[in-house]
TrEMBL record:
Binding site for NAD(+): 193, 227
Pfam families found in the cross-reference section: ELFV_dehydrog (PF00208), ELFV_dehydrog_N (PF02812)
InterPro entries to which the protein is assigned, alphabetical: Aminoacid_DH-like_N_sf, Glu/Leu/Phe/Val/Trp_DH, Glu/Leu/Phe/Val/Trp_DH_C, Glu/Leu/Phe/Val/Trp_DH_dimer, Glu/Leu/Phe/Val_DH_AS, Glu_DH, Glu_Leu_Phe_Val_DH, NAD(P)-bd_dom_sf
Reaction catalysis annotation: L-glutamate + NADP(+) + H2O = 2-oxoglutarate + NH4(+) + NADPH + H(+)
BP GO annotations: glutamate biosynthetic process
Name by which UniProt lists this protein: Glutamate dehydrogenase
Keywords per UniProt: NAD, NADP, Nucleotide-binding, Oxidoreductase
Residue intervals of the Glutamate/phenylalanine/leucine/valine/L-tryptophan dehydrogenase C-terminal domain: 186-445
Enzyme active site: 110
Length: 451
């Protein structure tokens, strides 16, 4: 059966590993690649529930437990009609290396169902979540597999699922992350992916400019309007940048020349998203709305692009448009936000334009802040403690700094850049994440021998 999303993620990793000196220095790691690309376990199940009219409904549920060499499986649950095994395998595969880059003890996994919450009542969502967790609870636990939220799984859904797990298992444990603050959740968790993305790019800007520049005065294009996009936008504004776009599946809002989104606008958009309404419902604004389009070709000259909606949201021609618009930094807030062709364009420009090039950061590094704070939530649950906003934010900032430095130094070691050329962050992230997981698997006997 064809698995296009998973095959894309696999080929993206392999292409950068093969273009590095990793296999030359460690040929035995080819066997590790073969082993790590097959999930340890794939669980598929049916979810039967009753809608408000008393009709029986059925959905397909999944959990891909991909790799546990570094810790319990960790990764989100996605509720969306497009959910299938290929998408969850791609997300779980990426999650292995993303979690490795946080420096925390977490394996990689992903799950969800092809349930569409749009148009469903709160009662129907509760019934679905209860039915879903009734089956999933047999396969997860605080030291086994710790799911989190993802698309269409926020605090409400996590609450319904956690309650059912607790009732079935007669245990209160940190089995899900993204919990409510008064029952085990962590401060900064909603903000973490967006904040972490901006912290990562801040290090890119600082490195590229020799410490002379920051987000201050930068024009930033953002796609998406969910959790990641909202908090990335707020952090950019806080750091002195101007956010010139947000989007949803139906179209894009583009700021007019000289203007940018305000925190008040983002608050209104967040309220719309909670009600599952489109950006077209936003009232009293002066932005240009472009139906059926992503922002990349419509934002004009920008300094930074942060795709934060979904996979494959930057195509090759959109990548070329961003390069032509003078964009200097692009980092994925979404998972696999750029197509392989787009990445190839960014990397080719990086190689041929040295210090004047666009510099690309992959999601497995740039958006690792979300799962990093999920890991911090697990630590707080284990200790029965709650850290302050300042403590969690400082730990998040430190993790993103270490992640950037790891990607940078690994790129310099295994993919030596030419004089004046930015190191390849995508190759650095892939090699650093893969090496850490492969070494742990070898120590535990998941693969052995020499090339």
């Amino acid at each position: 059966m064809a698995e296009p999303e998973f095959e894309q993620a696999y080929k993206e990793l392999v292409s950068t590993l093969e273009s590095s000196t990793l296999f030359e220095k460690n040929p035995e790691y080819k066997k590790a690649l073969e082993v790590v690309s097959i999930p340890e376990r794939v669980i598929q199940f049916r979810v039967v529930w009753e809608d408000d009219s008393g009709k029986c409904q059925v959905n397909k549920g999944y959990r891909v437990q991909f790799n546990s060499a570094l810790g319990p499986y960790k990764g989100g649950l996605r509720l969306h009609p497009t959910v299938n095994l290929s998408i969850l395998k791609f997300l779980g595969f990426e999650q292995i290396f993303k979690n490795a880059l946080t420096g925390l003890n977490m394996g990689g996994g992903k799950g969800g169902a092809d349930f569409d919450p749009k148009g469903r009542s709160d009662n129907e969502i509760r019934k679905f979540c209860v039915a879903f967790m009734t089956e999933l609870s047999k396969h997860i636990g605080a030291d086994t597999d710790v799911p989190a939220g993802d698309i269409n799984v926020g605090g409400r859904e996590i609450g319904y699922m956690f309650g059912q797990y607790r009732r079935l298992r007669n245990q209160w444990e940190g089995v899900l992350t993204g919990k409510g603050l008064n029952w085990g959740g962590s401060l900064i968790r909603p903000e973490a992916t967006g904040y972490g993305l901006v912290y990562y790019v801040e290090h890119m800007i600082n490195y590229a400019s020799g410490g002379k520049e920051s987000f201050s005065g930068k024009k930033v294009a953002i796609s998406g309007s969910g959790n990641v996009a909202q908090y990335a936008a707020l952090k950019v504004i806080e750091l002195g940048g101007t956010v010139v776009s947000l989007s949803d599946s139906k179209g894009s809002l583009i700021a007019t020349e000289g203007k940018g989104f305000t925190p008040e606008d983002i608050s209104k958009i967040a309220a719309l998203k909670l009600k599952r309404e489109a950006l077209t419902a936003l009232e009293g604004h002066s932005y240009n709305y472009i139906e059926g389009a992503r922002p990349w070709k419509h934002v004009g000259n920008v300094d930074v692009a942060l795709p934060s909606a979904t996979q494959n949201e930057v195509s090759q021609d959109e990548a070329e448009a961003l390069i032509a618009a003078g964009c200097k930094f692009i980092a994925e807030g979404s998972n696999m936000g750029c197509t392989q062709e787009a990445i190839d364009s960014f990397e080719a420009h990086r190689k041929s334009n040295q210090g004047n090039a666009i510099w690309y950061a992959p999601g497995k590094a740039a958006n690792a802040g979300g799962v990093a704070v999920s890991g911090l939530e697990m630590a707080q649950n284990s200790q029965r403690l709650s850290w302050t906003t300042e403590e969690v934010d400082a730990k998040l900032a430190g993790i993103m700094k270490d992640c950037f430095e790891n990607c940078l130094q690994t790129a310099k070691e295994y993919i030596t850049p030419a004089e004046g050329e930015f190191p390849s962050l995508v190759a650095g992230a892939n090699v650093a994440g893969f090496k850490k997981v492969a070494a742990a698997m070898h120590d535990q006997g998941d693969w052995w021998g020499t090339a």
